[in-house]
Amino acid sequence: MTPKLKIENLTLIFGRDKETALRMLKEGKSKADILAATGCTVGVKEASFDIQKGEFFVIMGLSGSGKSSLLRCLNRLIEPTAGNIFINETNITQLNDKQLQEIRRKEISMVFQQFGLLPHRSVLENVGFGLELQGMPAAERNQKSAAVIEMVGLKGYEQQLPSNLSGGMQQRVGLARALANDPEVLLMDEAFSALDPLIRTQMQDELLDLQEKMHKTIVFITHDLDEAIRLGDRIAIMKDGEVIQVGTPEEILTAPATDYVSSFVEKVDRKAIITASSLMDTKPVSAVFRKDGPEGSLRKMRATGLDILPAVTVDKHFLGFVYLKEILEVKRRGEPTIESVIHREVPVAYPDTTVEQMLPFIAETDKPVAVVNPENNKLVGLISQTALIIETTGSQTL
Ligand SMILES: Nc1ncnc2c1ncn2[C@@H]1O[C@H](COP(=O)(O)OP(=O)(O)OP(=O)(O)O)[C@@H](O)[C@H]1O
């Protein structure tokens, strides 16, 4: 599948002597060395990644890491120094001014941190401003604007001036304006960073709801890893102009690529993000069959060294757990199957169940947790108690 956006070796250098700076960069010189020798700042260094259609892609990094510079290259608000950017299959870096304008009007919109609203225009006029520039007649423009204003929850405020609105509402106007021309790609530069925390969380939720309906390709910038994790399908982490890791929130949290990423990850509340599938043992699950006799079950327990095993039907439907000591009882009583000692009232998780959702039943059980496929109830994995305890206490040293 062709990605919606393809960023290929993108480099951005600020300053005059870009050529020398670029050469030094290729030689592997550091940002500091390049600055000292040429007076040039490396804003973005050889970034390469793809963004898929409909993806919510977050670029996260501290102040000065280069995320705004990178975002602004995507619509050439800043001219990249080297590399390519493709939208669909069009190389944006090669477009002339007219073609670029066309792309900016139709395909890529941007939402800014400071809202960027025109103070003397009403909400309706602000939202319709881009359409007006395109020469759309007033009636059609107003109709489109009113529709997106309703979409972002501002119906009734069409005639207000921005100064009469709260920060959160002003940012909704900014969002509505970006959505008015129904772009395929939405660039959002720290769009919620100026809002206070409660409003910010509310806006994040609303944006996620909107995205469920819109399926836009969103590139969202933030310096806040919690926000990145809440919003992103995937996250790119930047440091000193470099993209140092691209991955799903789970990949970033469970397998940080560098110590730098780890240091961020340590501060995140993982329980809402880590899911059963990332915790479960991926080795083929040892299980006893319901029709197994006690001898067969004991053999499996000896082989695995476990004194609790899941019990399944022949086609792997999960039934419950069996315990070593009860199987020994069954054997002593001379029963032909282990049917009578399967504990069926046990909690199960689905692969996308989060640790937070598992907490209530983790507290009540000292067994491993079975992970089953929600569609057919087949056993797909087991999560050991140790893995759960580490995740819930956040401690690797028990
Ligand atoms: N116009 C400019 N001229 C020179 N250097 C610049 C310019 N804009 C940005 N820089 C430098 O490029 C680097 C990346 O800056 P950028 O603003 O992209 O980072 P950021 O991660 O978006 O930070 P912030 O969140 O503070 O905006 C920084 O070292 C910055 O000082």
UniProtKB/TrEMBL annotation:
<comment type="similarity">
    <text>Belongs to the ABC transporter superfamily.</text>
</comment>
<dbReference type="Pfam" id="PF00571">
    <property type="entry name" value="CBS"/>
</dbReference>
<dbReference type="GO" id="GO:0016020">
    <property type="term" value="C:membrane"/>
</dbReference>
<keyword id="KW-0813">Transport</keyword>
<dbReference type="InterPro" id="IPR005892">
    <property type="entry name" value="Gly-betaine_transp_ATP-bd"/>
</dbReference>
<dbReference type="GO" id="GO:0031460">
    <property type="term" value="P:glycine betaine transport"/>
</dbReference>
<dbReference type="GO" id="GO:0006865">
    <property type="term" value="P:amino acid transport"/>
</dbReference>
<dbReference type="InterPro" id="IPR027417">
    <property type="entry name" value="P-loop_NTPase"/>
</dbReference>
<dbReference type="InterPro" id="IPR000644">
    <property type="entry name" value="CBS_dom"/>
</dbReference>
<dbReference type="InterPro" id="IPR046342">
    <property type="entry name" value="CBS_dom_sf"/>
</dbReference>
<protein>
    <submittedName>
        <fullName>Glycine betaine/proline transport system ATP-binding protein</fullName>
    </submittedName>
</protein>
<dbReference type="InterPro" id="IPR051921">
    <property type="entry name" value="ABC_osmolyte_uptake_ATP-bind"/>
</dbReference>
<keyword id="KW-0547">Nucleotide-binding</keyword>
<dbReference type="GO" id="GO:0016887">
    <property type="term" value="F:ATP hydrolysis activity"/>
</dbReference>
<dbReference type="GO" id="GO:0006970">
    <property type="term" value="P:response to osmotic stress"/>
</dbReference>
<feature type="domain" description="ABC transporter">
    <location>
        <begin position="22"/>
        <end position="265"/>
    </location>
</feature>
<dbReference type="GO" id="GO:0005524">
    <property type="term" value="F:ATP binding"/>
</dbReference>
<dbReference type="InterPro" id="IPR017871">
    <property type="entry name" value="ABC_transporter-like_CS"/>
</dbReference>
<dbReference type="InterPro" id="IPR003439">
    <property type="entry name" value="ABC_transporter-like_ATP-bd"/>
</dbReference>
<keyword id="KW-0029">Amino-acid transport</keyword>
<dbReference type="InterPro" id="IPR003593">
    <property type="entry name" value="AAA+_ATPase"/>
</dbReference>
<keyword id="KW-0067">ATP-binding</keyword>
<dbReference type="Pfam" id="PF00005">
    <property type="entry name" value="ABC_tran"/>
</dbReference>
